[in-house]
Write a structure and sequence with these properties.
heterodimer, A: alpha+beta, Beta-Lactamase, Helix Hairpins, Heat Shock Protein 90, 3 domains, five-stranded antiparallel beta sheet, five-stranded mixed beta sheet, 9 helices, 18% strand, B: 279 residues, nine-stranded antiparallel beta sheet
């Protein structure tokens, strides 16, 4: 049911009940008072008339009926009366219809009866009593026409009907207009919601009022904001998964193609030993690449699925330990390493940190550097570690994507070095586990600096 | 959407039903109430005053003190509702009241304003007995009731208020429409004496016949006052003549009031319609 109809139904009920109740009370109260006043007036008039009749009876008239006939037009409010003899036989009457002696029921010498009766469609107040004077007893019934009272009541009813229906009509129009004003902002919100459902996630409502509708609009905007962020994140996630799958399939296909090709060649042909050796080398090489790929993939999967408990450990010892393990490899490749780590306790997982640093250093080596510097210091409540190299650098346009799985700046060079494009993805995930993120700063031809911050544990010194 | 429109139509129809049905029901209730009101029977009892003792009907009318008269007159001037009633025990009957009224008129014969002529003429008499009951109170003691006897002559109307117990006329208003008739100062004074004689009062030594005459807009106003007796009762008399246009018929009217105790000087220049009494 439309809102207007609901409001109208409620308003009709409330207004109807209120109006009808007050109208009923007003009309009946007024009518009751009018009847009571008219009755009191009739009774009072009767009492006065009684004196007049008594005064007329004092001289003991010869013709009682003639006397009563002469008095009748001046008696009662309406000039209508009837007289009965002591035996209740009718003496005289100028009432519109012949009265029934039943109207004298209950009349006593010390009491006057008043009752309302309808005669020929008109209502009359009959005031009846016994009059005794100078040995003569008569009963008098004085009639007062109360058509004016009943007519007034009918007029009030007619007037009330017009007021009642006019009020309802005006109320309906007012409700219609009010509904229009009240539902307009709600309809606006409704349209905005539909636009969002159709894909316009950047849809927002202007909030220009401080009432409940304004609050609703504000909440709607918050919800739209959250929906947009979620949709964006989900879209990004879906895209990354798609890219991951595509890259994975591609990375898998490339070595397999070589392996199958060389294996087929060995199978199909009788090659000279030199070619057999070459073929075997290619198969081995690609096999090793596949193995490295699968191992790194496994690491990534494990990292995504496992909850890690970080332990407190001295950062300088950690870095020194890792650097010590790398020294032989770096010396062999004639790459210099300098480690300058400030003392601090950090919350970390030793193996993961080692993996992270190894991946970053491996990347630095692949970038062709000859000097690597590892620095660690406390800054802003966290322990910041930076790994700087003087390799070929990373183009600025590539910096945002280098932590994506399988993403390689130079695919051909990476593959030669058995790279799969998963190292930085791993490092980024490890950084996430430690409550931080990898920050890259690079200039082509100069080198790259990678920073990561760790949570300081108790006992860490603040450097800055 | 269709369902919603159907419900909307039902809602609107229901609203109309409530409006019209409600009115029909209310109308029926009003008619029912009207039927109830028009079938009411009421009963009004006469003479709800019950005297504390059994009255002795042969006992003479009591003599009232000045304070009692003052209290009764104060009540008579009250604008509260007149309540008609049948004579209580000890009060005059209608016949007795009419006789007393006629006796008062007869006492003016030959003195001041002649009103006795009305007794000979064919006049209509309208008497009624009532008491002033302020605020719908129960009836007061019988001395507060009064018989109002109105005598209608051909060109004179005399309205008298008699105390229902003593039968004395304590207020009288005479209105006469007569050509070539003028009310004079001496006539007023003689009427005053006649009235005091009717009341059984004798003029005291401290008579102050302060009489003044004012002429305002064609009206003659005559004020006269006299202090009477040791009871401290003052009879106050005002005569007023009016000249009405265009026929220049001269009409006169005088009122006689029995005033209670009070300083004489307060009532020197007073008008009929705004009499005020103090105890």
């Amino acid at each position: 049911m439309r809102l207007f109809a609901k409001y109208f139904l409620c308003a009709a009920l409330v207004i109807s009940v209120a109006l009808l109740f007050s109208g009923y009370r007003l009309i009946t109260y007024s009518y009751e008072n009018a009847v009571r006043r008219e009755t009191e007036r009739a009774v009072r008039q009767y009492q006065y008339d009684k004196f007049t009749v008594q005064a007329a009876l004092i001289p003991k008239p010869d013709d009682l009926m003639e006397t009563l006939r002469g008095l009748a037009p001046d008696l009662s409010v309406s000039g209508l009366s009837a007289f009965f003899a002591e035996d209740r036989s009718l003496l005289y009457s100028n009432l519109p219809a012949e009265p029934d002696t039943a109207i004298l029921d209950g009349v006593r010498a010390d009491a006057v009866i008043n009752r309302i009766q309808t005669v020929d469609g008109r209502s009359y107040i009959f005031v009846c009593g016994q009059i005794t004077q100078s040995g003569v007893t008569v009963y008098m019934a004085a009639a007062t026409d109360m058509s004016s009272v009943t007519g007034q009541k009918d007029e009030m009813v007619r007037g009330f009907v017009s007021v009642y229906f006019t009020t309802l009509g005006i109320s309906a129009a007012v409700i219609l207009i009010l509904c229009e004003f009240l539902t307009r902002p709600v309809m606006r919100i409704n349209r905005a919601a539909k636009r969002i459902a159709r894909g316009r996630y950047n849809e927002r409502l202007p909030v220009s009022r401080g009432d409940e509708i304004g609050e609703l609009a504000g909440s709607f905007n918050m919800m739209a904001e959250a929906v947009e962020e979620k949709i964006t994140a989900l879209s990004e996630n879906a895209r990354q998964k798609e890219d991951f799958t595509a890259n994975f399939a591609h990375e898998l296909k490339t070595p397999l193609t070589s392996i199958i090709g060389y294996a087929d060649m060995l199978y199909q042909k009788a090659l000279p030993p030199e070619q057999v050796r070459d073929a075997a080398w290619y198969i081995l090489n690609e096999g090793l690449r596949l193995e490295a790929l699968s191992l790194k993939l496994m690491d990534l999967i494990v990292l995504n699925r496992q909850d890690f408990v970080l332990e407190e450990m001295p950062a300088e010892e950690l870095l020194a330990d890792i650097a010590g393990g790398l020294k032989p490899v770096l010396e062999e490749r004639k790459v210099g390493l300098r480690v300058a780590a400030g003392p601090a306790y950090i919350k970390a997982d030793y193996d993961l940190i080692k993996t992270l640093l190894l991946n970053l250093i491996d990347n630095a080596l692949k970038a062709g550097c000859n000097q690597i510097e590892i620095e660690g210091k406390v800054s802003g409540g966290r322990y910041c570690v930076s790994i700087a190299d003087n390799g070929r650098g990373i183009p600025a346009s590539e910096l945002t994507r280098i932590t994506e799985a399988f993403y390689m700046v130079d695919k051909s060079r990476s593959r030669k070095q058995h790279g799969a494009g998963l190292g930085l993805a791993l490092a980024a995930r490890i950084a996430e586990i430690h409550g931080g993120a990898l920050e890259f700063a690079s200039r082509e031809g100069v080198g790259t600096v990678v920073k990561i911050s760790f949570i300081c544990a108790a006992g860490g010194d603040e450097d800055e | 959407m269709n369902k919603r429109n159907i419900y909307t139509a039902i809602g609107v129809a229901l609203s109309f039903l409530i409006a019209i049905g409600g009115w029909t029901l209310t109308n029926a209730l009003i008619d029912r109430k009207s039927d109830v009101l028009l079938s009411v029977t009421g009963i009004t009892h006469n003479n709800i005053y019950v005297p504390p003792d059994e009255p002795d009907e042969d006992a003479p009318a009591p003599e009232l003190s000045g304070e009692e008269i003052a209290a009764v007159l104060r009540n008579w001037e009250n604008t509260a509702i007149e309540q008609f009633h049948e004579p209580f025990a000890g009060q005059l009957t209608m016949e007795q009241a009419i006789e007393q009224a006629k006796a008062c008129l007869a006492s003016f014969d030959g003195q001041g304003v002649n009103l006795a002529f009305m007794l000979d003429a064919d006049m209509a008499i309208s008497p009624y007995l009532c008491q002033n009951l302020p605020g719908g109170m129960a009836f007061l003691v019988p001395i507060y009731s009064y018989w109002t006897v109105i005598l209608y002559g051909s060109d004179t109307v005399v309205t008298m208020k008699l105390n229902a117990v003593t039968g004395q006329v304590w207020q009288m208003r005479v209105s006469r429409l007569a050509a070539e008739s003028q009310f004079t100062t001496s006539g007023a004074y003689d009427t005053l004496l006649a009235y005091s004689s009717y009341l059984g009062l004798e003029a005291g030594e401290d008579r102050d016949a302060g009489i003044g005459r004012d002429r305002i807009d064609g009206r003659h106003k005559i004020d006269a006052s006299i202090s009477v007796g040791d009871a401290g009762l003052y009879i106050w008399f005002i005569g007023e003549g009016r000249l009405t246009s265009p026929d220049s018929i001269y009409a006169w009217e005088f009122a006689l009031y029995l005033t209670p105790d009070g300083p004489f000087s307060l009532y020197r220049n007073y008008s009929v319609d705004s009499a005020e009494f103090t105890s």
